[in-house]
Amino acid sequence: MHVPDGFINAPVSAVAGVVAAGAVAVSLRGARRELGGERTAPLAGLVAAFIFAVQMLNFPVAAGTSGHLLGGALAAILVGPFTGVLCIAVVLLMQGILFADGGLTALGVNITVMGVVTTLVAYALFRGLTGVLPRTRRSTTAAAFVAALVSVPAAAAAFTLIYAVGGTTDVPLGKVLTAMVGVHVLIGIGEAAITALTVGAVLAVRPDLVHGARGLAAPLKLRVHGELVDVPAPAAAPAAPRSTRKVWATGLAAALLLAGFVSFYASASPDGLEKVAADKGIDEKTQEHGAADSPLADYGVKDVDDARLSGGLAGVIGVGATVVVGSGVFWAVRRRSTPQAPVTRTTESV
Question: How many folded domains does the chain comprise?
Answer without folding.
Answer: 1
